[in-house]
Amino acid sequence: MDWNSIDFTPLWITLxxxxxxxxxxxxxxxxxxxxxxxxxxxxxAFWDGILTMPMVxxxxxxxxxxxxxxxxxxxxxxxxxxxxxxxVVHTWLGCVVAATIIxxxxxxxxxxxxxxxxxxxxxxxxxxxxxxxxxxxxxxxLPMAKPGIISGLTLAFARAIGEYGxxxxxAGNIAGKTSTISQQIAMVIQSGDYATAGFxxxxxxxxxxxxxxxxxxxxxxxxx
Length: 224
Hints:
The chain is an all-alpha fold. The chain is built from 11 helices and no strands. It has a single domain, classed as MetI-like fold, CATH 1.10.3720.
């Protein structure tokens, strides 16, 4: 394999997509976790199912649904395009949207689990002292849930950089624009370039391994 012939653009697109998707998943996941925790009754199970759905759906199915929603020929996609000039299909934004939706459940589930493990007596004590809910969240709940939230964020990033099915459906495989590592692997295999495919497999495996080791280190510190 000629190293000079390798185009590293898919790596930068993948990392940018992973970081952007992690950013959005972080805030959306925490907000969703808080809302679901504070919801009671059967509606809680309903919303939890809706929010977790992208994790269990085949990525191609999720990608097809997103394609139907964001296509400029559809109501919502046409509204975004004509009103704000935003086009999701076949753009890098499509990569981010697809990766965010697929990675979001991992952030949400980990954040929810972390919040649910907080000792409620600490929260009750803070309320007794007159601390408002906003400060309780930022000063008590969020720091106590930090290891679980970081784990969720790391998993979301790892899932985002490895996303293929939904990204292919929504953003396509446009060289230098939406071609991520996963898409590049599929493309070079089809052309018979197994050496390049092997190189990209090693790269994405190494990044994923670093993410998993980071989670283990975080969880290990928490146990200590």
